[in-house]
Amino acid sequence: GARFLDLYAGSGAVGLEALSRGAAQVIWVEGDREVHRTTLANVTALAGEGQQVVCCPVERWLRLAGRGLAAGLVFADPPYSRARETGLAELAAQVARERVVAVGGLLIAELPRQAPTDTWPGWRLLRDRVYGHTRLVIGQLMEHAS
Fold first, then answer.
1. Which of 20, 30, 118, 120 meets the CB 3.0–4.6 Å disulfide criterion with 87?
2. CATH class assigned to 3-141
3. What residues contact 99, with CB distance under 8 A and at least 6 apart?
4. What is the pTM of this model?
5. How far apart are alpha carbons 35 and 10 in whole angstroms?
6. d(CA 130, CA 114)
C-alpha cells in the first residue's frame, strides 16, 4: 500500500478507488470551495470519518503541507481550461522539487487532449495516450529537482 495523493480531487472518485485497491493513505486536495464540499461529502460517505480531505489551492498545499511527503503515486486532474493553456511541466517540477513524490514514484495526469506536450526534467515518460477528449500522461520520477 503506497501513499496516494489526489490533486484537484473533484468528486474524490480517483482517491476512493486507490483506497479501495489498498493504498496505505490517501490525501485529497481540492482548491475550489464548492467542489471541496462535494469531495468531503463523498469521501466521508464512502470511506468514513478521519480521511484527509484538504481545501487549499494545490500549488500552495504542495509548497507547505505536501513538502517531503514522498508519496508513491500522485494523480493530478487540473481544470481543463488551465491545463489546455499551461500543460503540466510546472506542476511536475514542483512535485519533484518539494519532494512530494518519492524517487521512483509516479505522477499520473489527466489532461485535455489538446494540452501542450511538455517535458518534465527529472522524470521518465512511461505513457502518453489519448482517449477521446482526454489525454493520460504517466511519468516516473528519476531524481529530485534541486
1. 118
2. alpha beta
3. 67, 68, 69, 70, 144
4. 0.92
5. 6
6. 9
